[in-house]
Amino acid sequence: MRRSSSSSALSRKQGQSSWTRGPRSLPKACPRRPRSMADRIESKAGCRRTCKGLTNYAQLLMRRGPGVAFLKNKVKVGLVAFVDLLGFSARVEAMKTFEDLKLLDQTIARVQRYFDHKPSDSLTKESQQITAKTVLAFSDCLVITVPVDSELASQDGHFDVLMNELSNFALSLGLCAVNGIFLRGGVDFGLWYRNRDRLISPAMVKAYELERDACVPMIAVTGEVHRHFSEHRDRKFYHKSADPIPRILRRFDDLPNGKAQWLIDYMPICLESVDGHIAAADLARYKTSNPEIRDQMRNEAFWRDCRQWATWHADAIRGQYRTATAGSIRAKYVWLARYHDDAVARFFGTAPAELLIGDLANDAGTIAS
C-alpha cells in the first residue's frame, strides 16, 4: 500500500417566487395574515434543504426592501462548525498558580493555531481568502464558516471546496489529539449572518447542540451535511474507489450515550497525510540512489512515520484516561481507544500489536515509547 499523491493536503433576478405568495384561490375579501420572519424561515423546508434553495432564500432575504439593507452581502450559505476544548471548565476551576494559567492559555493558543485562527503565513491567508473561510474564536471555542459561494468554488464547484474543509477539520483534530489536546465539535449546513465578529446563525445553533450530543472527542456532522454531500451531483465524477464521502464521514452506532452519529473519520485522513521524511543519516544515500531505491526509501519513511503518529495518538488517549476522575469521562476515552484500534486495523491492514491500545480498563500503566 502506498501513499496517494493527493493525500498530503492535510474549493434570480429579483422577484417573488411561487412559494412566497399566498394560495391562488384566496379570496381578495379575506386578506391573509402577514407572515413573520419566523414563518418564512420555518416554511418550505423542502426548498431550503437544497443548496440552491438555501442560496435563493438568502438572496430573497436581502431583497425584502430598505428595512433589511443591513443584510446585503452578509448572509451566506455553507458549512458552520462549532468546536470546543474538552475539560476546559475543570482546568479553569483547578487553577492555583500563574503557571497553570499560562499553560491553559498556551493550550488555547495552540488549538486556535491548528485551526488557522488569524494565520500569520501568507499561504494560509490566501487559502482562506479564496475559499471565504472565517474562523472566530472566543475563550475555548471556535466557530468556523465556509460558504458555497467563493472565488475557488466558482472555479472548482463547492463540493470539492467544502469536502476539503471537512478533511482540514480532521487534520486539525488529529494534530490536537497527538499533542494531548482533545476536542469535540459539530458541523451543520445552513444559513448565517456575519457582520465583523458578530455571527447569527440557526446552523451554528444546530452545530452547538450536535457538539453537546456527540459526547466523544470527535467532530460530528448533522444528517443535513451528510445528505447534502451524498446527494450532490458532483459526487458522480468520483470513481467508487475514490469516493470522498465514505473516506471522510463514517456512521457510529455505539456512542457511550447510546446514540448514533455521523462523525468525521479523522484518523485515516491524518495517517494518509503523513509526510514521511528521510532521516538525516540516510540523506546522502538517498541523493545518490536511483529512482527505484528512492521510492523504496520514501515508502519506508512514510510507514515509519505512520507508526510513530499512531503511537503518539495511543499514548495521548492513555494519558487522558488515566487522569480522568469521572466514570463518564473515562467511558469516552474507552470508546476513543476502540476507535483508535479499529482505525489502525483499517489503515494498516494487519494491525501491529504495538500500535493497539486494547482494553484501557486493564491497562498496566506502561506507555509505549
Structure at a glance:
47% of the residues lie in helices and 14% in strands. It has helices at 37-42, 45-48, 51-61, 88-94, 98-114, 122-131, 153-156, 158-178, 202-214, 223-230, 244-248, 266-272, 283-288, 291-323, 327-348, and strands at residues 75-85, 134-138, 141-147, 183-195, 198-200, 219-221, 249-252, 261-264.
Strand coverage percent: 5-15%
Largest sheet: 8 strands, mixed
Number of strands: 8
End-to-end Cα distance: 26 Å
Put simply, the count of helices is 15
Measured as a percent range, the helix fraction is 40-55%
User: Could you state the order of secondary-structure elements as H and E?
Assistant: HHHEHHHEEHHEEHEHHEEHHHH
Low-pLDDT regions: 1-49, 364-369
Q: Which geometry do the CA atoms define?
A: globular
Q: Structural class per helix/strand content?
A: alpha+beta
Question: What is the mean predicted local confidence, pLDDT?
Answer: 83
From the alpha carbons, calculate the radius of gyration and give it in angstroms.
24 Å
